[in-house]
Amino acid sequence: MPFATKPDGEVNVYNVRYAPFIMECGFTETYSDVLADVISWLTQTDEAVRVVLLIKLIEKKTALIPPPLSIDSWIEDDNTPKEPFPDDPAYEYLRESTMLDVWVGPLEGFAELWRLKPGGFVERDGDRVIVYPRPIGGVKKMRISNADIMGRYAVPGDELVPCDLDMDAYCHMLQNSIEKLAFRRRVRYLKATQEVDAPKHT
């Protein structure tokens, strides 16, 4: 078994072991690391995975104005599992008052489609698409086919049926995730500097 974890996203119509179309998203990882995962999915799943949507986000942490505590101490666990916060009015106050540009550095994000070609070759399909910041007019849609989603269950003609990926909708989801990230970083920072279990609001 080449992978111990599931992909970051997938379209698994028949609930098979490896979905034909999956997504790999990198934030703290380098582009090279994410691309290596993409290539592994395409070449080490017995041709079950046919297409991978790669999304890479790049944060310019150097643009952050570091608070008294080292930046690394409150950013280092951005990839750890997220626990829900208690139902406390103080947390809601913090959530509403958190400023994104204080807790998250300027972000850039792009998406690429990668395919498995006959003979086991892997190559990028089409141009890189900017997904963040959201371009004026919206994010360009990326097109795959019905055959890409159905994989081994595709029928003749599926390759001619287009399926557009709504990357603009993904951009809106991404914005929500960035807001949550800023909030969590702020809470971690307050806990580390004040040594309290929860933020206090009076």
Q: What does this protein structure show overall?
A:
With 202 residues, the protein is an alpha+beta fold. It contains six helices and seven strands, in the order ββαβαααβββαβα. The chain has helices at residues 31-43, 71-75, 89-97, 100-103, 146-150, 167-194; strands at 9-11, 21-26, 51-59, 107-117, 121-132, 142-145, 162-165. A five-stranded mixed sheet has the order 1-2-3-4-5, sandwiched between helices. The chain has a two-stranded antiparallel ribbon with strand order 6-7. The protein is elongated, with a radius of gyration of 20 Å. The chain starts with 8 loop residues before the first strand and ends in an 8-residue tail after the last helix. Mean pLDDT is 82; it is low at 195-202.
What attributes does this structure have?
disordered C terminus; two-stranded antiparallel ribbon; elongated; 32% helix; 7 strands; alpha+beta; 24% strand; 202 residues; 5-stranded mixed beta sheet
Secondary structure layout:
Layout lengths: L8 E3 L9 E6 L4 H13 L7 E9 L11 H5 L13 H9 L2 H4 L3 E11 L3 E12 L9 E4 H5 L11 E4 L1 H28 L8
Parallel strand pairs: 2-3
Antiparallel strand pairs: 1-2, 3-4, 4-5, 6-7
Distance between the termini: 53 Å
Unreliable stretches (pLDDT < 50, length at least 5) are 195-202
The tally of helices reads 6
Q: By helix and strand content, what is the structural category?
A: alpha+beta
Instruction: Give me the Rg, rounded.
Output: 20 Å
Strand tally, please? 7
Into which percentage range does the β-strand content fall?
15-25%
Average pLDDT taken over every residue: 82
* Helix proportion: 25-40%
Shape: elongated
Tell me the major beta sheet.
5 strands, mixed
Question: What is the H/E string?
Answer: EEHEHHHEEEHEH
